[in-house]
Amino acid sequence: MTVELYKHLRMRPFAVKRGPAELARQAEETGWYGGFLSDSQHFSPETWVSLGQAIEGSSTLSLAVGVTNPATRDVSVTASAAAAAYFYSGGRFVLGLGRGDSSVHKIGRKPVALEEFELRVTQIQEYLSGGTPGRDTDGSPVGLWAADVDMAKPPMDLAATGPKVIAIGARHAERVSFTVSADPVRIAWAIEQAKAACRDSGKDPDSLAMGAYVHMVVTDDISYGRDLVRGLAALAHRFTAMNTAKPLADLSENERETATRLSGAYRTQDHALGTSEYAQTLSDEFLDLFAIIGPASYCIERISALVELGITRLWIMPPGRETGAEQSDRMYDDIGRQVIPHLT
Q1: Where do the H-state alpha helices sit in 138-283?
Q2: Rounded distance between C-alpha atoms, residue 327 and residue 139, angstroms
Q3: How far apart (Å, rounded) are the C-alpha atoms in residues 163 and 300?
Q4: Structural domains present in the chain
Q5: From the CB of residue 250, how many other CB atoms can be counted at a distance below 10 Å?
Q6: What is the rounded distance in angstroms from the CA atom of residue 262 to the CA atom of residue 234?
Q7: CB burial class (10 A; 0-12, 13-18, 19+) of residue 22?
C-alpha cells in the first residue's frame, strides 16, 4: 500500500515553546511524508513566515499550505510565495488552495464565488507556469520573478467538497483533495466526479492525483477518539451546506439533515471547537463513519479501502481547537508509531 500521510504542524496553544521548525523536524524524524500549515490569520501565526521556518527545520519532509485562498491574498502574492517556498525547499512544497473559510469569515467576507474562484485558480497557475496574467498600471502584462529562475512549477492541490469545486480542481490543478469524510462511499463519489470532469475537459483522469482530508485517532477508547475529532468533523461536514441553499443532493438523508443543522448552528467563535453546542449534536454513528477511529489494525484497514479507490495522499486533520498540545501530540505520535510503519 502506497499513500502519503501529511501531519498538521499545529502551533496552538501559543504558550507551547515549539515553533514550526521543531514541529517539522519532529514530523520528519517520526516517519511522516509531509506536514501542512493552515492559513487562518486569527487562529494561527502567519502561514508563510511559519512555512519558511518549517523549510529550514527539515530536509526531506514535504510541506504544504492546507489551505490558503484567493480572498484574503491577491493571486500574485500567493503565486510568488508558493514559488519562493518551492524554490527554497528544493521542490518540497505543495500549494493547497480553497475558497476560504475562517480566514474569510473573520474579516466579514464570504468565500469566493465559484466563477471568480475558477478565474483565480487559472491566474495562479499561469503565474506559476511562467505566464503573465497580471497587469501593470499602464496595462502591460506582468509575470513573476520565478519565470527567470531554473525551477519546476510548484504543484497545486485544490481542496474540494462539492461537484463544482471538484470539477474546477480536476480541470486546472495537478492534485485534488476531497473534504468529504473518510467514508469510502463519499470518497468514491468524489473520485468519480473528478474523473468525469477530467474526461469532459479532455484531460487524462490518470494524470490527476487525488487525496483526502481525514480525521483519524488510533485508540481502543472509541469515545475518547470521537471527542478528539468532533470539532473538526462538525466543521468539515458543514462544508456540504455552507455556501448553498441546500446540502449536496448526493448525501444520504441523515447526512443532509446533519449538514443543514451544522451550517445553521455554526458560529465563527465556535470554529473547530468540539465542546461547542453544534458539534455536540453529532451522533456516534455519524462520527464512526465520517472519521477513522479505532485500533491501529482498524485504521490501516480503513486507509487501505481508500487507497484501493485511488487515494494517494491523506491530510490527517488535528483534533478540536480546545485540545491541549500534549493530547494533540499523542494523537499524531500514535499514528506515527502504529500506522505509518505499515505504509509504503
Answers
A1: 163-172, 184-201, 222-242, 253-265
A2: 53
A3: 28
A4: 4-215+296-342 (3.20.20.30), 220-294 (no CATH)
A5: 16
A6: 7
A7: middle
* pLDDT tens across the length of the chain (344 residues): 789 999 999 765 554 567 899 999 999 999 999 999 988 877 788 999 999 999 999 999 999 998 998 988 999 999 999 999 999 999 999 999 998 766 666 667 777 889 999 999 999 999 999 999 999 999 999 999 999 999 999 999 999 999 999 999 999 999 999 999 999 999 999 999 999 999 999 999 999 999 999 999 999 999 999 988 887 787 666 555 454 445 455 666 666 666 665 566 556 555 555 556 667 678 889 899 999 999 999 999 999 999 999 999 999 998 877 777 888 889 999 999 999 999 97
Q: Tell the residue number behind the cell numbers 499550505, with chain if given.
A: 65
* Residue from 179, 210, 174, 213 nearest 192 by CA: 210
- Which of 5, 65, 20, 46 minimizes the C-alpha distance to 334? 5
Rounded to the nearest 10 degrees, what angle do helices 47-56 and 75-88 cross at? 10
